[in-house]
Amino acid sequence: MADIDNERNCEEKGTSKEAQLLAACYEGNSQRAKELVDQGAEIFVTDETGRTALHFAAASGDVDTVRFVLESGIPWNSLDVGNYTAGDYAESSGHDAAYNKLVQAGIRAEMILRLFNKGQVDGKAANEDYLTQPVVYSGDRLIDAEKNGVMMSWEAPLMELHAKTICANPGGVVLNVGFGMGIIDTALQQLSPGKHVIIEAHPDVYQHMKNEGWDKKPNVYILFGRWQDKLDEVRALGPYDGIFFDTFGEFYKDLDDFHKAIFAGGNDDGEQQPILSQPDGIYSFFNGMGGDHKLFHDVYCHVARADLLKLGMDTQYSQVASDIVMDEETWKGIKRPYWMIKSYNLPTCKWVQKE
Ligand SMILES: C[S@@+](CC[C@H](N)C(=O)[O-])C[C@H]1O[C@@H](n2cnc3c(N)ncnc32)[C@H](O)[C@@H]1O
Fold it and tell me: Which atom of ligand 1 is nearest to the CA of 244?
């Protein structure tokens, strides 16, 4: 991240209104910033490293200035050329209140976006291209045709924790959506579930499962296909004491649709029982949402918790595995690092207990 304090490039740029505006934001002088905008300064200015007025305001830590810039229209999720959010600038200087202001703005924007997008259907699976192209198991990773990391072994400690979260007692009925490298399924088997259902949509992964003998395990039921098409079979094999969800190439909307399918009784009349058993079933999901930017991730965590609550689920995030070491080797040969955050927010979702 470029150091605003050292460069002070807004000063070096002379006295244009825009340079003064960035300087006022960096000083946390919301009054002055407003005056300059009223006098015609362009709020959508960026400096040579792509930093917006929001990056400068966030670096100042002044909440009023952050609010003013957000209200003037600078998006909460602006990135500079170094790929840093305004949240990175606030956080690195310990400006918690300014950081929280950005998270709140993100949550609000995502909720509003949701209203606009409501009802949009295009009929095509989000990850259709992925599902129709080959994948390769290569050492500590599973990669797709475009060199995206579908699953990587650095996630193993997280998968073991997820397995313990959803399979607290031997003999339970568990469901895992997305086999990948089978890390969580291996961990679940060690916890002796009574029935272990796995949904997997990719033909190469399904073949790999058979090569590894997963179809011969006495308590394992493999459903080959997209979870969206397997809900009746899932239901027939349930209900489940524990459910875990970790697919690839899908979006938040798919996760939210899955939640509606497993918690909301499966149809609008609520005639069917939920797929997760009541009242003690436990649900968890791979929480990689917005995992390349802490600010985006924090916003998604809040949005997911609010959406799950609407479905009757209480979500707790425990911060775990901050000791996972990531270096250049971790991501070598991978198109896009998908996790860049220091600690992992492991979600545990339980039914809200009725009084
Ligand atoms: C990230 S990997 C899962 C890794 C797994 N948790 C582990 O421990 O190894 C995601 C898996 O979900 C599968 N998948 C993607 N979309 C799916 C869908 N709609 N339904 C079922 N499986 C899906 C992918 O083929 C891939 O095997």
Answer: 6
